[in-house]
Amino acid sequence: QVKTVTGLVTDEAGVPMPGVNVLIKNTTNGTSTDFDGKYAINDVKANSVLVFSYLGFATQEIPFIGKNVMNITLMEDASKLDEVVLIGYGTSKRKDLTGAIASVSADELKDQPFSSVDQALTGKAAGVTVSQNSGAPGGGVSIKIRGITSLYGNEPLYVIDGTPIFADRNNTSLDLGAATGGGSGQNVNSALSGLNMSDIESIDILKDASATAIYGANGSNGVVLITTKKGKRGKATISFDNYTGIQSVAKYYDMMDLQQYAQYTSDLLKSDNRDVPFIFKDPSLLGKGTDWQKEIFRSALVTNNQLAVSGEKDGTRYYTSLGYFKQEGVIVNTDFERISMRLNIETKVNDWFKIGNNISLSNVKQRIVKNDDRGGIVSSALRLSPLVPVRYPDGSYGAPGGGVNGASNNYEAVNPVAYSEYVNNLDKKFKINGNLFAEISFLKHLTFRSELGYDLNAGDGRVFIPTYDNIGTAANEVNSSLKQQDQGYYWTAKNFLTYSQALDKHNINVVLGQERQKSNFEYLRGSRRDLEGNNEFDNLVLGLKSTSEVDNQSYAWAMQSYIARANYNYDSKYYLTASMRADASSNFGPNNKWGYFPAISGAWTISNENFMKSSSGPINYLKLRAGYGEVGNQNIPSFLYQTQFAAVPSSSGLSYVYTVDGNPDIKWETLKSTNIGLEIGLLDNAIRLDLDLYQKKSSDLLIQRPADDRTAGRVLPYENVGEMLNRGIDIKLNTRNYETDDFSWNSTFIFSTYTNELTKFYDGTKPLTANIPQSDGELLYSYVEEGKSLGQIYGYVTDGIFRTQQEVDESAVQVPGKTSVGDIKFKDLNNDGEITLDDRTYIGSALPKFTFSVNNNITYKDFDLSVVVNGSYGNKIYNQNRFYTEALRFLGENQSTDALDHFVVNYLPDGVTLDDAANIAQNTDIPRIDLANGNSNTRVSDRFVEDGSYIRIQNITMGYNLSPEFLSKTNLFTKARLYLSGQNLFTFTKYSGLDPEIGSRNSDIRFAGLDVGRYPLAKTITLGVNLTF
Amino acid sequence: EDEVEMPTIATFSSQSSPNASGTPGELLKIEGTNLTGLEKIILDNTLEVSFNPNLNSDNAIFFNIPNYDFENPYNFGVQPIKFITANGEIDSQINIIQPTPVFGNLSIPNPKLGEKVTIKGSWFIGIQSVTFGGEPIEYNLVSDQEMYFIVPTDATKGQHVVITTDAGSTAIVEPGPGIGNTTFVDINFGFVDYLFEDFDGNGLYTSTWGFYGDAGDLSVTAEGETGNCAQYDYNGATANGYNGCQNNEAGAFLPSSATDASKATFKMMVNAVAGTSFDVILDNWAYNFTLETSGWQEVTARLDQFGSGYNPGNAATDTEKIDPSGVLQVKVSLPNNGTVSSVKFDDIKFRVEE
Amino acid sequence: DDFTELRSENSLCVDCLPPGASPYEGIQNGLYTKGWFDYNFKGMITQGDTYAGNVWANDGEFRPFAEASVLNDNAVLNSNWTALFSVVNQSNSLMQDLIRDKDNIPEDAYDQGIGVSKFMRATAYYYLVRIWGPVPIFDENSDGINSKRNLESDVYKFIEMDLADAAEKLTTEPKTGRIGKYSAMGMLAKVKLNLKKYDEAADLCRGVIQSGKFDLLEDYGNLFNNPNYNNSIESLFSLQWTVNCNEWGTQNTEQAFIVPSGSGITGGGDGWGSYMPTIDLPGLYEDGDKRRKPSIMIEGDVYPELLSKKGGYTFNKLPSQTALNFRKYIVGSADDGYNVCFMRTDQNTNMLRYADVLLMMAEAKLGANASTSDSEALSAFNRVRSRAGLSSVSTITQASLFKERRIEFLLEGQYYFDLQRRNRADALAEIAAQERGFYGDDARTELVSIKITPTDDFFTMPLPSGAISINENLTAEPVPFNF
Ligand SMILES: [Ca+2]
Ligand SMILES: [Ca+2]
C-alpha cells in the first residue's frame, strides 16, 4: 500500500513554513514545502517514517499511520544544539563545536535603546566584558574577551557577514585636539555605530584560540561574528519597530552651593593671608548659585524606527530595511543620529551556483563636546564656581572673571554651557559595508566560495568656533573653521574550497583558502580663521586667505593569507578539528613578515555513547571539549619597523624632526591558548551548563619602549618584550524553571572570572607605567612590574591626617619644611624616615575579581517580562575628579561638600571660635586648605582609590503581545507587541563617582579604573512597539 | 493663592560706605526681605543695570554701580533706582560719587614748546580747570579718559599739569625711576644734555682727574651737589705761572655733529666763597666765571663765548670759534695770583641744541 | 611579496632618503623649532627666571619654583629633563645618519650638519649640566639604556669639545636664522666663564666682536616683541618659531602665559598672566632706562601697539598679584597684524645675542676681580648701557655687571644661570634679599611677603621622579665618561 501524503507545515504561531524538508526516513525520497507551506510526497509505505526538518527547528519524525493528510507544527529547537553557529570561513552546528563559542540571538538584543550593538552585549556572554569608555551617544565601547591579552588594543575583531571591521583602526572620528582640546579618546566612536542593531540576526563570539586561529594575526583578542537578517520562508513579512525613550543622569556629585562656596573661599583666602571679598563676608545673604551639573545635564530623547521587509521567492531570499535612530546626549549639545539602509539578497541561480550580496548604507551624524578630560565639560561643571551665572539678565553668558571676586588664574575654568555650545565637533560618517559572494558546488561534496567584502567610509568632520564674548578668561575675537574630509577603503577578497562528506559514520569537512585584504585611509584637512558672515556659515572660503592651513595624511596596511582547516567527527561522538593560517602583514619588515598560526581541538560527546544513551539518569547531554591554538596580534601603527622623520611647519625651508625610531625586528604578538570545556544538559535540558576553563599565554607582547633619557621626544620603537598569562573560568547556566502553557520562566546566569599576570616584561628591568595628566603635570598612576597583574594603581598609602605638631615631628619627614598639622600623613613604607618615591606601592587593582549577570525571562499568557542584573566585584577605581573636588587648593574652583569639613589650622573660618576650631580639628578626615599644596596632599595615593564593585539593574522590560485571536480579527497584523523598558535603572555601589562602570580612558588598558570626569551612562526609560504585517 | 509679600529693603550699603553710595563700578548690597526673583534694576528711570543673578537671594541683592559710559553718561549724585522682583517693585535711591580724576600718563614725556600733548587717565568729567605750573591752560576733552593741550610757547621750564574736576584734582607725581604716571611735563627746549662727569661714576668721561702747574690738590669729596664732587685747591705758589686740574685721559666726547659753538653750552655746579673767580678751559679755550655768592650754584656759558689761547678775553675778537665736537679735555683753573683759593665743582654738563 | 610591501606616505624613512644634503638640512632646520619646543614651552622661564626670583607665579606647577621648593615630581622639572634630552637625541640621530651617509653628501654640507648637531647637543647639555650637574652623556654611539650619570667635569669637557669642534666646522656665513661659527664661539665663551677660563672666554668674545658681523638692534623692545625683527643683526642663536593653528610644537607659547589676564591682548582665549614680575624688579632700573617699558608694565603704562585697533592698551595692575606685568615676549594679536593664534606666536626665542657677547666680554675681563676699568671691558659694557639710554660707567664691579645682566636678559631664562657664575656668597645674599611675594588685596597694597633663605642646595635641582622611575641607575654615583 503506497500512498501520497499531503499536508501543511506551520510554525508555533501557525504561520505556514515554506522550504521545510520532508523525507521518508532511510530513503532518498524527499521533497520540500511550497510557498504556502504545503507539501505532497509519494510512495509512502505503511512502515514509513516521515522526517520534517528545518534549520533552527527541532526535527520531527512522524510514523505514517495511514492518514493521507498530515499537518505538522514544527517547534523551534529549544536545546539549540542544532542551531547553526558561525565559525569563520564556514558554519557548524552547535553540537559539533570543539571550541569555545558563545552566541547571542536577535531576541536577546531586541528592545534595547543603544546606538550600537556592542553596548547591548553587556552581560550576554560569559567571558565577554563590555565597558563604555564614554556614555556619549555613539561613544566608544571596550569589549574584552577573556581578560587582557595585549598591552595595546584589546578590542576583538568584528566580522559582519564575512567582512571584518577593525575596532582599533580608522574608526576614530575627527580628532580635533588642536581645535577643541583634549585627547583623542573622547572622539573615538564605536566601530559598530554605523550598524543598525535591528538588522542583526545573531552574534557568535569566538573566544578561544582554537576557534579564532582561523583569523590568524587578527584573532588574538577574540572574534565577534555578526550575521544580519536574511529573508525567510514564504510570504513576505513587513515589520515595523519603534521605541522612544527618555534618558537622564542617574547621579550627581554633591558639590558646594554658593553659600558653602563663599564660606570655603573665605577660608582659602584667609589661609593665604588675603582679603575676603565683600560679597563673601556674609554667606547667609547669598542664594544657592549655579548648580553647573544641572546646567550641563539634561533629560534627553532617544528614538528608533525600523521598517523591514523580508521573504523568499523562487529561490531568492531577500531582506531589506530602513532604520532611523536618534539619541540626544544627556550632556547639552551632544547627540547622535543614524539613518541606515540594508539589502541582503541571495539567489540560487541553479543547482550548482548561488550568489548573494549584502549591502548596508549608513549615515551617522554626531555632535561631540570635550569630555573625559580635566578641561572637559564634566570636569568644568564640577570645578566652576557657583558664583558664575549661566547667563546675565541681558542674555550674555556668565564667565569667571578678573581678580575682583577671587577668581583664579586657572585657564581651564570656563562656562561649560557656553563652551559646549561654541566649541564642539560635528562629525558625519557615511558608510557602505557589505559582502558579495558566489558559491559554486562542483561536485556533490565540493564547494568553491568566493567573497568580496568591503567597508567604505567617507568621513566629514567640522569644528566651527564662532567669535564669542568672555566665557572664561577671555573672549574669542577671531572665529575659525576647520573641516576634515576623509576616506577609508577597506576590502578583502577570499577564495576557499570546502570539501564536506559523510561516509558512514565518518564526517569530514575540509576548508582550504586564500585571502587578501587591504586598507587605505586618507584625510584632507583645512582650516581658516576670521570668517566673514557673523558666525552664520562655516565655509572656509569666507575666511581670511592668509590663515589657510592644510594637512593631509594617509595610512595603509595590507595582508595576505592562506588558510586550511579540517573537521572530522565520528558518529557525532568524537570530534577533531585542526587548522592553520599563514599571514603576511605590511606592518612588519622583511625580517618577520610571515606569521603561522596553528590550532587543534577535539570534543567527545559522551551522551552519544551507548552507555549514556541507555542510562536513565538526569543527564541527557554531556560533552567535553579541549583545544589549543595560536593566534597573533598585529595591532600597532604601520611602518614602525622603519626609522622615519616627518615634516613640521617651519619659518623657512624644509624642516624635519625624527618621528619614529624604527625596529626592523618587530613581529606579531603571539597568543597561545588552551581551553577545556564541559557542556551538560540535565532533565531534558531544563538545566543546561556550559563551563570553560582557559589559559591564555601572550608572548612577544608588543609595546612602545618607555621613554628614557636618550630617546625622549620621538616615537619610540615598538618592541616584543613581554609575556602575559590569563587564566579564567567562564560559566553559563540556563534553567527552565517553570513551564506551562500559560506561564514560563527561564533564567540565565553568567559568571566570568580571570586572573592576569604580566609574567615577563623587559626581563624585569622596567615596569609598565602610565601617567595621569592633571594640573600638577603628569603623575604616575599605574605601575606594573613583572609578576603583577595589569590595572595596578600605584601610589602612596595614607594614614589619616596629622592632628598635632607633635605627630608631625615624630613622623617620617613628608615634605621638608612644608608639612603642617592638617596635612595628610603618608606612610613611610620603607622606614627610612622620609617620604620619597620609594614609599609608593600598589594601592588597588582595577581588574574585577569576577563579573556576573543574571537574566530572567518570564511569560504569562500574552505578557512577557525580562529582568537583567549584572555586576562586578572587587575592582578599584581611582576617582581623579576628587583631585579637583577635594583639592582644597585651587582658588576660584568649586569643591564637593565633603571639603567643607576640612581641617582648620592657623586661621579661623567665620563664626568659629578658637574653642570650636580644636574640636573641628579632631573630627575630620579632610586635610587642611593649602593653596601652595606644600605637602602635596593630592598626590596619587589611596586617598582617591575607591571600591568599584557594583550590582546594576541593567534592564527590565515588560511586554504585551496582542493575542493572535484578536489580531486575526483585524486581519492587519500577524504580530503586535507593546513594551516598556528601563535601562540602567539602578546601581548599588559604594563608588562616589557618577558611574562605577569605567571603561579604559582612550581605550588604553594602562588607564583601567581611572575616572577623570567621563560622560556618564544615562538611565533610560523607553516605550516601544513591534508590529509584523 | 496667598498674597505675596512685597519686597522690602532693610539696609542698603556699599563696599566702602554704610550708605547706598559709591563710585562707578562699586559693589552695592541690599539686605531686606522677599528680594528673590530680581528681574531688572533700573537707574534714574532709564538705565538698565546688569547684575549677577546668583547674587540675589531672598534676603539680599548685590549689584555693581554701572561703569561710566562717556557716550551715554549718567548723572552723578543722588539718583532714583528701581528694583523689579518677582514679588513686586521697590524704589530707592543711590548716591553715585564722582571719583577724583586720575592722571594716567602723557603721550609725549618731553614735548617741545607748542606741541600737542595727550593726557590719558580717568574721570575727566566736569572739568573745572587744567593748569600748567599752576597757570590755567586751554585744553580739549576727547573723552572721560583722554584730553589734550598745547605746551605753552612761552614756557621756560618743565611744569606739572594738574586737572581739576568737580570731584577734585589729580595728584602731582614726580618723575623717577620706573614711574610711568608722572605729571611733570619735561619740556624739550631743543637740546640734549651730555653729562661729562658727576664724580659719582657717571658721565661720558669718567677717568681720574689730575692737576698741573702751581696746583695744590684735586680731591674728590663727599660734599658734592649730587654725591661726590671735586675740590680743586690753588696752593698760592707762582713758580709755574699757571695752575689747573683736568681729566687725565683725553678724548672727544660730544657727538661729531656738534660743530656749532653757538649751540653748545657749558654747565657746571660750583661752590666757593663769594667773589671767587676761576677759569673753565676746554682744551685751550677759556671762559672766566666770578661767583657773587657762596653755596652751590650753576654756572653756564655758551661755547662761542670761550676765548682762544687760554684767554677768556679773546672771545670778543676770535673769528674762529671752538669746535665742540673736537673738545678733548675740561680743565678748571684758579687765578695764579699768589692767593690761596679753592673751588668745588660737580655735575659738568654740555647742552647741545639741535 | 609585493602586496604587503607598503611605504608610509606621510613621512620619509631613513632608508629611502633622496640622495644629497637636502634632507639633512631639513632635519637641521627641525632642530631650531620642534626640537626645543618643550623647553621653551614652560621650562626656560620657570627654571631661569621664576626659580631665580624674577617671576611670581601662582599656578600649581609654577609656584614651587617661585618659592624655590621644587619637588622631584614637579611637572616642569620633569618636562625640562625630557625636553633637553630630546635635543640631545635628535642631534645624535642626525649625526649618526650623516656619518653613515657621508659619501653621498658634499663636504661643506657634511661639516655644517655635524657642526649643527654638535652645537645643539652641547647647548642642550649646557642647560642640563647647569640644572642638574652630573647627567648621563650620550653620544651618537651610545645605546643609552639605563645609563648612569657622568661626572659634572666630564659633561663640561664633552660640551667644550663639541662646541670647539662646531666652531671649526660651522660656516662663517650661515643662512638667515641659522647658526654659524660665531654662534659656537659665543656659546663656548659662556661655557668657559662657567669654568672660570676667563682668558679663553675673552678671546672667544673678542673673535665674535671683531668679526664685525653683529651689532645691537637699536630698539631693545623689537628683540622680543615684534617678530618682524626676528633674526636681526643681534642674533647669534634663536629658536625659529612658526604659527600653524592646527599644529602644536612649532610655535612660541610665551605670550599665552604672560599677557595680563582678561586683557584680550592676544585676541584669543589665551593670556593668563601666569608669570608676574616680582615686586623688586622696577626698582632695579635706573632713571631713563629705555629697557624698562618694553620689559615690564607698570600701572598706567600705555602701549599703543597692543590692542592697536582699539586705541592701545593701558596696563591696569588689578589682574596681577604683584601689580606688575611683563611686556617682554608679548607680540599682540592677529588684529595687530601679527601671525598669532591660540597659544601661538612666531616670535623667535633669543638663545644667544650680541648683547650677551658684549657683557660676557666684560665678565671675562672682570674675571674674579672685585672691579675693573679695563677699556675693552668698559667699551663692551657701555655699548649695552648706551643702547638702553644710560650713561657710560668707568668701573665695572661684580654687582654692577650682574645687575646689568639681570635687567638686560630679564625673562630670557638666564638669571638662574648667571647667579650660578657669581661669587657664591654674593649670590646667596642677593637671593635672600629678594622679595618674592605678592599683594593679598585687590588694592595691591598689602604685601604677603615671601622670602627664602637659600643654601648651596639652591643651585642643585632634584633629579626628576619620572626619569628615575624609568632608570633607577640615575641615582647611582656619577661615573667618568669614556671619551
Ligand atoms: Ca621612606
Ligand atoms: Ca656728584
Would you give an account of this structure?
The complex is a heterotrimer of chains A (1029), B (354) and C (483). Chain A is mainly beta and 1029 residues long. Chain A is globular and about 110 Å long. Helices cover 0% and strands 46% of the residues of chain B. In chain B, the strands form 6 sheets. In chain B, strands 19, 21, 22, 24, 27 and 29 form a 6-stranded antiparallel β-sheet that branches. In chain B, strands 2-9-8-4-5 form a 5-stranded mixed β-sheet, with no helix packed on it. Chain B starts with 7 loop residues before the first strand and ends with a strand. In chain B, 35% of the residues are buried. With 483 residues, chain C is mainly alpha-helical. Chain C is built from 17 helices and 13 strands. Chain C has helices at residues 22-31, 34-50, 63-66, 75-100, 107-132, 152-169, 181-194, 198-210, 254-258, 281-284, 292-295, 354-366, 375-387, 398-408, 415-421, 424-433, 465-470; strands at residues 12-13, 55-56, 235-239, 276-277, 296-298, 302-303, 313-314, 324-326, 349-353, 371-372, 396-397, 438-439, 447-448. The mean pLDDT of chain C is 91. Chains in contact: A-B, A-C, B-C. Strand 30 (644-647) of chain A pairs antiparallel with strand 1 (12-13) of chain C, so a sheet runs across the interface. Residues 828, 830, 832, 834-836, 838-839 of chain A line the site of one calcium ion (CA).
TL;DR of this structure?
Chain A is mainly β and 1029 residues long.
